[in-house]
């Protein structure tokens, strides 16, 4: 017997205990042990029934993610083989579920003939979240026990259910109060007394309300609408339909085929890439995981504007007390009122309890004296985006903050080294670039300065995770990873307008492809004045950086986007829906006439390629310069901060799926098109394309 699965017999009941921490992943060390135990119990005349149990925290979390993409994945027996031996076992088998039974873990439990659970246990099949379906009989067994409607609901959302609900649905036979193993053994003894044998789910029929054909038509319509671009949810519906209409073994065959095609499809690969990319992003080659960190018990935020308020909310949401500091009392009061309003709106939507809101707000202290930041373990500056203002603040922080405090800046474009340079402690200075709204957006670019100390970086990454962000490390450069790329994306969106596209045509093509928002609607949301300010700076600093001036024309008329009710679109009061504006059309055609621009029909495919490949090409420079540590970090930035469609896996992953040779070919063809001089293929892209390699 393997160490990961122990076997004992008590009063005629065999007990198989899974012990593969941390989550009893069904890896190559555990599967053989379970299989052996089932066979042993089946053959032992002294055994009447069998209990499979994990730890109090985890029955099993399913497949062992540490073995993904390794040969260990296919070490026999497979989970389906274990399920077959469960079905073949002639003694009743009980899953004793403590903690969670998820994915393959629940499929193992569904292979058992009965299930008991603790009150706090959670049961679910979350495969859909990785673009997959439960591939070891889950789609066939779950509907047979909970009915078609519940099974579709559970498997297409991937959300788990609690023990009480599972009991009501028949998924669990008993909720055990007290010790789980004792409860499971007495449940087994009851079965033996009542002479109840195995009860195989495969032999049951699926409960379904009403006409099956109508049921599945409706399910497909509803699930298809919610799935938007993801194939797995509809495949799950098809499997449940097979469970209803076909014998078990045929349904299993169909499940296997559909599973296989999802595994090989780009959507699931993209979601799995994202899953691993998030874990990878936390790993910094020269900062080992055991790097000591500094304690963060309190924080201060300088500036109570758009970003400062959201950053303060993120911190107190995680229980970290914050002192928020402004220059003037009225600005401070405005900022505090906005925070209060934001929380109140969450409470009114039922997503936060009033007392929780009060508790969080009570963790915020406000002040107009910078001195009041002095005891904080970290101070995050979020004042105006001007070097002189920031340097002035950092000089003052240097003189007031206690030794060892982390000095962070939320700058989106400025040189973190130049900010650190005015202090006597550049090793304690770091960039924490939040995205707006800062209390909602998951991305946090952590900007590592030339002198940032390793423990400061490690502490900031840890804090980022604590406040539920996805921290991605960036080196210092203008715009860091995300905004440096988005500038090229925005540049192309304006060139497309020059050449004949309407703003709505560009946005529609991007959205149809999967972006949460098109580039022009995104500009309207962020404020067109922000981009305009950057362009004005570029005209002086980098005359090589060419822009269409059509964006400036829009801004010159005071059209700054949503905040002024007009931008690339117009907006009705209290409504963020962009409405095409004939006035914009006039501005654009006037601009084209003055500049003697020829227009042409541009297909959606070209629009998307120019936008996305502009991101990819700049990203290749960023990677080669070492600003980003790895391609998957760049993907994470776009997936969590810029509304990039998860099923495309991020710009780098997407380019890999298209083939870098093809991406390069398109870029080379753009070189001879309108404003072709801006397309300079990144040397890294050229090299990888020539070698037939990928970014990731
Ligand atoms: P904002 O204008 O809304 O807020 C800035 C606040 O700082 C104002 O309330 C101002 O009164 C206060 N302030 C200025 N000088 C101060 C001082 N010396 N002491 C104390 N308070 C002072 O600006 P914002 O949009 O919140 O941006 C703040 C920073 O965050 C900028 O560096 C910006 O580039 C960056 N950022 C903004 C966004 C965004 O989408 N708005 C996103 C990421 C990063």
Taken from the alpha-carbon principal axes, the silhouette is globular
Give the overall average pLDDT. Answer: 96
Number of strands: 18
Structural class: alpha/beta
Query: Strand portion, in percent?
Result: 5-15%
Number of helices, counting only DSSP H or I runs of 4 residues or more: 28
Structure, explained:
It is a single chain. With 696 residues, the chain is an alpha/beta fold. It has an 8-stranded mixed β-sheet, sandwiched between helices. A 6-stranded mixed β-sheet has the order 1-2-3-5-7-10, with helices on both faces. α5 packs antiparallel against α9 (232-245) and α27 crosses α28 (683-691). The protein starts with a strand and ends in a 5-residue tail after the last helix. Helices cover 48% and strands 11% of the residues. A hairpin with a 2-residue loop joins β1 and β2. It is globular. Bound molecules: nicotinamide-adenine-dinucleotide.
Can you give me a brief rundown of this structure?
This protein is α/β, with parallel strands linked by helices and 696 residues long.
């Amino acid at each position: 017997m393997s160490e990961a699965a122990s076997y004992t017999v008590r009063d005629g009941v065999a007990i198989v205990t899974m012990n593969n921490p941390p989550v009893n992943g069904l890896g190559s060390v555990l599967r053989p042990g379970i299989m052996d135990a089932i066979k042993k119990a089946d053959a032992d005349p002294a055994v009447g029934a069998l209990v499979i149990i994990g730890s109090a925290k985890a029955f099993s979390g399913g497949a062992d993610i540490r073995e993904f993409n390794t040969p260990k994945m296919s070490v026999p027996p497979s989970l389906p083989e274990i399920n077959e031996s469960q079905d073949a076992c002639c003694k009743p088998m009980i899953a004793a579920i403590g903690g969670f039974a998820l994915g393959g873990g629940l499929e193992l439990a569904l292979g058992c003939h009965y299930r008991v659970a603790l009150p706090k246990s959670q049961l679910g099949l979350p495969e859909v979240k990785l673009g997959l379906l439960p591939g070891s009989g889950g789609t066939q067994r779950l509907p047979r026990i909970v009915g078609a409607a519940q099974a579709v609901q559970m498997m297409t959302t991937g959300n788990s259910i609690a023990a009480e609900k599972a009991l009501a649905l028949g998924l669990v036979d008993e909720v055990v109060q007290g010790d789980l193993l004792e409860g499971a053994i007495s449940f087994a003894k009851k079965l033996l007394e009542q002479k109840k044998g195995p009860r195989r789910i495969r032999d049951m029929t699926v409960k379904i309300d009403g006409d099956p054909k109508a049921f599945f038509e409706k399910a497909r319509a509803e699930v298809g609408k919610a799935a938007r671009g993801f194939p797995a949810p509809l495949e799950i519906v098809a499997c449940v339909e097979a469970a209803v209409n076909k014998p078990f073994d045929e349904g299993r065959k169909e499940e296997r085929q559909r599973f296989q095609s999802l595994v090989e499809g780009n959507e699931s690969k993209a979601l799995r890439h994202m899953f691993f990319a998030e874990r990878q992003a936390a790993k910094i080659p020269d900062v080992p995981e055991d790097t000591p960190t500094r304690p963060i018990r309190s924080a201060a935020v300088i500036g109570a504007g758009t970003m400062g308020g959201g950053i303060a909310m993120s911190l107190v949401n995680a229980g970290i007390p914050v002192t928020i500091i402004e220059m003037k009392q009225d600005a401070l009061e405005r900022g505090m009122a906005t925070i209060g309003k934001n929380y109140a709106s969450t409470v009114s939507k039922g997503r936060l309890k009033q007392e929780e809101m009060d508790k969080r707000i009570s963790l915020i202290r406000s002040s107009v004296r910078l001195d009041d930041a002095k005891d904080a373990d970290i101070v995050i500056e979020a004042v105006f985006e001007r070097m002189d203002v920031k340097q002035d603040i950092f000089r003052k922080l240097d003189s007031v903050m206690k030794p060892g405090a982390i000095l962070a800046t939320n700058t989106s474009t400025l040189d973190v080294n130049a900010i650190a340079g005015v202090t006597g402690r550049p090793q304690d200075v770091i960039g924490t670039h939040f995205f707006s709204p800062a209390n909602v957006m998951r991305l946090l670019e952590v900007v590592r300065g030339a002198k940032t100390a390793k423990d400061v970086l490690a502490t900031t990454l840890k804090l980022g995770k604590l406040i539920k962000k996805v921290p991605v490390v960036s080196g210092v450069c203008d715009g860091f990873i995300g905004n440096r790329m988005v500038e090229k994306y925005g540049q192309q969106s304006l060139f497309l307008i020059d050449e004949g596209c309407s703003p709505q045509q560009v946005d529609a093509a991007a959205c149809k492809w999967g972006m949460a928002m098109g580039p022009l609607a995104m500009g309207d949301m962020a404020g067109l004045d922000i981009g305009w300010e950057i362009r004005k700076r570029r005209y002086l600093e980098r005359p090589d950086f060419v822009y269409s001036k059509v964006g400036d024309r829009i801004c010159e008329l005071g059209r700054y986007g949503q905040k002024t009710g007009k931008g690339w679109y117009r907006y009705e009061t209290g409504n963020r829906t962009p409405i095409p504006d004939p006035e914009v059309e006039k501005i654009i055609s006037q601009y084209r006439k003055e500049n003697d621009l020829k227009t042409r029909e541009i297909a959606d495919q070209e629009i998307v390629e120019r936008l996305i490949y502009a991101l990819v090409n700049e990203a290749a420079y960023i990677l080669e310069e070492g600003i980003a540590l790895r391609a998957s970090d760049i993907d994470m930035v776009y997936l969590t901060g810029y509304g990039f469609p998860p099923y495309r896996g991020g710009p780098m992953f997407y380019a890999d799926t298209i083939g870098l040779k093809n991406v390069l070919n398109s870029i080379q063809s753009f070189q001879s098109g309108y404003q072709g001089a801006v397309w300079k293929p990144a040397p890294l892209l050229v090299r990888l394309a020539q070698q037939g390699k990928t970014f990731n």
